[in-house]
Amino acid sequence: AHCVAEDEDAVEESDRLNPLGDFVKGAVDLRCCSVEVPRSASSSEVYRWRLRLISNGGDKILELGFMDVEELNDWIEVVQEAGRTSTEVHRRASDKSRRSSCVVPELSALVVCCQSVPYKPDSLLEDNPMTMCSFVEKNIERLLSVTAHRLEFIEYSRRHLARVYPAGSRIDSSNYDPMVMWNAGAQLVALNFQTPDRAMQLNHGRFIGGTGFALKPRQLRMDDLNQRLMESTPYMLRVTLLAGRHLSRPVGRGVINPLVEIEVVGAENNSDKRRCPTRLESGLNPCWLPCRQADAIEQPIPILEFSVEQPELSLLRFVLNDEDVFGDPKFIAHATLPLHLVRTGFRSVQLLNGFSHPLELASLLVHIDFNYSCAVDSPQLLLSFN
Predict the structure, then answer these.
(1) Sign of the CA dihedral running 189, 195, 198, 200
(2) E strand or H helix at 144, and its extent?
(3) Nearest to 195 by CA among 173, 167, 225, 218
(4) What are the distances in angstroms from CA 78 to CA 31, 58, 83?
(5) Rounded to an integer, what distance in angstroms lies between the CA atom of residue 175 and that of residue 269?
(6) What residues contact 384, with CB distance under 8 A and at least 6 apart?
(7) Which pLDDT tens digit goes with each residue over 70-111?
(8) For the whole prediction, is pTM greater than 0.70?
């Protein structure tokens, strides 16, 4: 004997589509019908008013009787509205079918490169490259904190897509530090774009130019990855802050006390931040150059040096703050740039607000220089700055 169990989901779906159940005796396609009301009715009939649905061929499909004209008019409106709705639904279905018929099956079969699978590096390294893994921020941070697992993830991201998204506990729409994920090879790092914080400013600097795409750094694309990451040629980045102009608050009045922070944001153990001296009440045209030779001893030119090991994994960041009477900095503007795109010489750095929109006329004048502390074996590193 065989036992057949009724599918409850199928029963619920059937009840939703057909709430009248067995009382339904048929269906009428209102798209092919017209409404006709007879001019007169016999006094001997029970119903004084009749409503007929006539097909395009002239055949009578359905006839309804009514006792008063108000009910007749209500039904006419219902039938006409149902006919318009049915026509619109049919038109949308036809458009969708027409668009689907224009898709080339061979090309459509290629658009399956984001099949989500669990992260298992031992099995995924030899798996189909058209699969991807998704990670919540806490899980990927825990994974990358172990060197062996970090190297496995970098090797995995060379062949597969990896997506990282914020934790659901961030109810204030805050963001995590995306540099850790980018420098491990993650291609899709999701952020809360509605929050103008440091993470979003780093995101603007990483994808500067507005395309939304950036080539993965060379170190993360090479086959001999372990040796390339361990053996790098460091050099010294020297940034000299000279002057600024039109440094003002985005809202309100008054002259600011410009406090400039210069930071190199890069790989692990290769990030550093320095502060330049504050210039009191000189936001319109602050100058960090000494006016007299005697002032050079008391107010030396801020020359900041940073040791950089992997420029393709690093960002150069300028932050303008307004220092209040208590010495606390308040964010005013920033400029974040990919370090491997920075050129030497005197440069005018355009400042942006918290949402990375340009501030009119606001900029910093700096001088940038590279000092290689040892011979460079790989010529590609030099080509990035030519």
Answers:
(1) positive
(2) helix 137-144
(3) 173
(4) 14, 22, 9
(5) 21
(6) 311, 312, 340
(7) 877 887 788 778 777 877 877 787 777 666 666 677 776 666
(8) no
